[in-house]
Amino acid sequence: MLALSGALVLALLLIGRPYRVVGRSMEPAFVEGDWVWLDSHAPHVGDVVVFREPDSGHLAVKRIAGEPGEAVQIVGNDV
């Protein structure tokens, strides 16, 4: 049973990684403290991604709102 559990954890780590959400910018989909499991496929509009913020170096969890060259409009709290 332990070997099966270890194999499952290893398989999941090869597919993706868990990340903890910090901050409120992804609410209501994700709240601070939530864990998200992200794989390493090429991202598309609507996908959630993790990246290092250039200024602080902290990991950020965000959703892709548009592709390069597209215009994104924010009205109130809606994208």
Radius of gyration: 16 Å
The chain-level mean pLDDT equals 83
Structural class: alpha+beta
Give a short account of the largest sheet: 2 strands, antiparallel
Number of extended strands: 4
Q: So how many helices?
A: 1
Q: What gross morphology would you assign?
A: elongated
SSE series? HEEEE
Distance between the termini: 47 Å
Uncertain regions: pLDDT < 50 for 5+ in a row?
Answer: none
Determine the strand fraction and express it as a percent band.
25-35%
Helix content: 10-25%
Q: If you had to describe this structure to a student in words, what would you say it looks like?
A:
The chain has 79 residues and is an alpha+beta fold. 18% of the residues lie in helices and 25% in strands. The protein has one helix and four strands, in the order αββββ. β3 and β4 form a beta hairpin. It is elongated. The mean pLDDT is 83.
